[in-house]
Design goal:
The complex is a heterodimer of chains A (about 100) and B (about 425).
Chain A: H1 8-32, H2 39-68, H3 75-96
Chain B: E1 2-5, H1 9-26, H2 30-47, E2 54-60, E3 64-66, E4 70-79, E5 84-90, E6 96-100, E7 105-107, E8 112-121, E9 125-129, E10 132-137, E11 143-149, E12 153-158, E13 174-196, H3 208-214, E14 218-227, E15 229-236, H4 247-264, E16 268-275, E17 279-284, H5 287-299, E18 324-329, H6 334-345, E19 349-355, H7 367-389, E20 393-397, H8 403-421
Helix pairs in contact in B: 1-2, 4-5
The chains are: A mainly alpha (about 100), B alpha/beta (about 425).
Chain lengths: ~100, ~425
């Protein structure tokens, strides 16, 4: 099965797992240059990573479910993507300021 | 607290942007769905209100410590913003080492938390602790608040004194009661000899057994017990040093040991730190003098300069008549060498503990280096001979050997130089 033939839900899950892997890598870099945290602090961070991965996967799966409905021939997806891009640009501008 | 955004947000932004763009270009939903979690993190990080901020207070469990002690540095955090994980990276002065860094702690909104670090007092000196880089990270570590703390906690690390059982006997004693046996006899405790009874002698000093034996009244005589004045001469012009040890460290520890011992016996101690900056302390006795001496020692630092300094910079009242001057020096600087020769030439009772710089020297790698070291050793031999000719006792104290053994050798050397003088 080619990558393009995977159901969109898999793409959402792959994205969420990639985010989890990124978060763990960045956290391990942070830990390398600082003191080891106590269990409660580490558990809190792990919990936050788990929560954001779960939320990301949920959001992706939700969007995937929407696209499978083929509402307005994919117009919804295009509109959501454009809105998200606009929002992102706004946020980048705010961050730069 | 200055707030920065986490550097990892930039790659996330890139992934999300590329995903959305690819989705729009290809007309397929998968890229944007894969990028959605990253987009979510960005939205949470950049859109969340408030920035992590904490107020930090530092406390040291003691302000005075001995070399080799371990101290606890406590950091108290007050949350001023949303909950965050706070880490502190301590910036310690060169004589203090970090044993255990402070662990990151969670500080809730308006809450408090404490973290403690253990530090090791490696080298004597007066320091200021508390310099640190404090970082407060939000739950996802998307925003990081930075604050640099200035050093504000004074810490005095006292040198660990060399252990001594006995001290040098001075050439002259002072007319004050003390613990040194004087050559003159009088009211004391230590038996000296027996002589015939003279009018005015106390009857309790009559030695009845000797009187019966000799058939005339005999009285016991006792040694007077007097105190001594000692001037400790610390050479801070130069030192031979390694990473964790130096001749100045050895001199300071020996000075501390001698001072403690002398003051405990009721003697008067003066100190001269002879170097780029000349510091001195007039002779005095008692516990307060020990603290004053410690103050001078803690300020004893090498200050390199090329200005010629002789003994004229030392106040005359610092060298009372009959005082014994003990110099602790590596004899590396000509100014110290000449000052000690001057003092001996003016009739002062000078003894030199030469702190050998040899263990601190790197072994010579080539023939020229070896030759230079041989010349230097020969020069030191000549210098020692010159001192001895002037009646100055010189002993060499090497790193690793107890100071007590150097003092024992000094006792013999002083007896020899007394003979040479006479």
């Amino acid at each position: 099965m080619a990558l393009g033939e995977l159901p969109p839900a898999y793409a959402a899950l792959v994205g969420a797992l990639a985010l989890g892997a990124f978060e763990l890598v960045f956290w391990s870099i942070e830990l390398r240059f600082g003191a080891a945290p106590r269990i409660r602090v580490a558990a809190r961070r792990l919990g936050a990573i788990g929560a954001v991965v779960a939320a990301g996967a949920g959001l992706g799966l939700g969007l995937a479910a929407l696209t499978t409905l083929h509402i307005a021939g994919g117009l919804l997806l295009t509109a959501a993507g454009t809105a998200a891009a606009g929002m992102l640009l706004a946020l980048i501008a705010r961050a730069a300021r | 607290m200055t707030v920065f955004r986490s550097p990892r947000l930039f790659p996330y932004m890139l992934i999300a942007g590329v995903g959305m763009l690819a989705s729009l270009v290809l007309g397929r939903p998968e890229p944007v769905l894969a990028a959605t979690p990253f987009l979510l993190v960005l939205l949470l990080a950049l859109g969340s209100p408030g920035s992590p901020a904490v107020h930090v207070r530092c406390k040291l469990d003691r302000q005075k410590a001995l070399e080799g002690d371990e101290l606890v540095l406590e950091l108290a955090f007050n949350g001023m913003g949303p909950g965050c994980v706070v880490t502190a990276e301590l910036d310690l002065p060169p004589g203090v080492d970090l044993v255990e860094p402070p662990a990151p702690v969670w500080v809730g909104r308006g809450g408090t938390a404490r973290a403690s670090a253990r530090v090791y007092c490696r080298r004597w000196g007066a320091y200021r602790l508390g310099a640190a880089l404090v970082q407060a990270r939000g739950a996802l570590s998307a925003r990081v608040g930075h604050e640099r703390l200035e050093p504000s906690l004074p810490l005095r690390i006292y040198p660990r004194p060399e252990r001594l059982r006995s001290l040098l006997r001075p050439r002259d004693v002072q007319p004050r009661a003390g613990s040194v046996l004087a050559r003159a006899s009088g009211d004391g405790f230590e038996f000296a000899d027996i002589r015939d009874f003279l009018p005015g002698d106390r009857t309790r000093h009559v030695n009845w057994k000797a009187s019966a034996h000799r058939d005339r009244l005999q009285v016991n005589r006792y040694h007077l017990e007097r105190s001594r004045d000692v001037v400790l001469f610390l050479d801070s012009f130069s030192e031979a040093a390694r990473e964790n040890a130096s001749t100045l460290d050895m001199a300071v520890r020996a000075t501390m040991g001698v001072t403690e011992r002398l003051l405990r016996q009721g003697d008067r101690v003066a100190i001269v730190s002879f170097g780029g900056v000349v510091r001195w302390l007039q002779p005095d006795t008692g516990a307060r003098q020990l603290y004053r001496v410690v103050d001078v020692l803690l300020q004893a630092r090498l200050a390199f300069d090329h200005v010629w300094r002789g003994i004229d910079v030392i106040p005359r009242r610092l060298l009372p008549a009959g005082a014994m001057l003990v110099a602790l020096t590596p004899l590396l600087d000509r100014r110290t060498v000449h000052a000690l020769l001057d003092l001996a030439g003016r009739g002062h009772d000078v003894s030199i503990v030469e702190i050998s710089p040899l263990p601190f020297l790197r072994p010579a790698s080539d023939a020229a280096g070896r030759l230079a070291q041989r010349f230097w050793r020969m020069r030191m031999e000549v210098l020692r001979h010159e001192y001895e000719r002037m009646g100055v006792a010189v002993v060499t104290w090497t790193e690793g050997s107890p100071f007590e053994s150097a003092l024992e050798e000094m006792r013999r050397s002083r007896a020899r130089s007394r003979l040479l003088r006479s």
